[in-house]
Amino acid sequence: MALIEIAGLEVVFAARGEAVRAVRGIDLSVEPRESFGLVGESGSGKSTVLRALCGLAPVSAGRALIDGRAPPALGRIGSRDRAFARRVQMVFQDPYGSLHPRHTVDRVLSEPLLVHGLGGRRERDRRVEAALQDVGLDASFRFRYPHQLSGGQRQRVAVARALMLEPSVLLLDEPTSALDASVQAEVLNLLSRLREERGLTFLMVSHDFAVIDHMCDRLAVMQQGRIVEVLDREALARGAVREDYTRALLAASQAHAPVQ
Ligand SMILES: Nc1ncnc2c1ncn2[C@@H]1O[C@H](COP(=O)(O)OP(=O)(O)OP(=O)(O)O)[C@@H](O)[C@H]1O
């Protein structure tokens, strides 16, 4: 059975009295342990799909389910949210924005455990140290603040935080596009390794085909809130693309340096 199931999904935002149809009826299934990419031009609705899956955007019609369940309603904190957070986590583009500037790495990583009442002090310490090690940061990083880290190190901390509750699904929104090319490759390789080791399922947004090609088994191409085609990696490698829109995106992406 698919782990992520999206059917007839529509998301409509009300912006200054006008309805913005960000997602216009999409269907998508992602299997357990699969890594699936969403590509498309800016504003095509990629991030909105991820947000609908975790309850941060309204599902106006259709459904967006993970493991057969809809996300908890916006603004309601309860046991369903806690159960959901233990299955699904999101990683954003900008680790600087998503890490609290006045919280140490230790606090950032312990907080999910505290909120979920997991482990005593010793157990939390052990898990924070293990989490740092898992993302390739040594113990000296534990009491640093975000501004004392490089962009790549910050994103490693954001990945470690996302994994603290041992979720099965990661929703990744342009997780490396704020990083330099060489650092980008390191973080992508880290994500691939963690996925392999932990049997994670990824749904990943990028505007960059090289990133998607590096990371994903299949991808959907989005345009104006719709999916125009779904490709697997092999079709992408052969250039077996049906839509001119996809070809244009591919050409624009290939103008940039490929991921190593
Ligand atoms: N909260 C919101 N309120 C109103 N409109 C929104 C909201 N969030 C997104 N939109 C609109 O929905 C459309 C899709 O946005 P979305 O962020 O999903 O696109 P995207 O493909 O992820 O783009 P990018 O690659 O630039 O991040 C855009 O027209 C955007 O302006």
Automatic annotation (TrEMBL):
Coiled-coil residue spans: none
One Gene Ontology term from the biological process aspect of the record: transmembrane transport
Family: Belongs to the ABC transporter superfamily.
UniProt cross-references to Gene3D superfamilies, sorted A to Z: P-loop containing nucleotide triphosphate hydrolases
Assigned keywords, A-Z: ATP-binding, Nucleotide-binding, Transport
Protein name: Peptide/nickel transport system ATP-binding protein
Pfam families noted in UniProt: ABC_tran (PF00005)
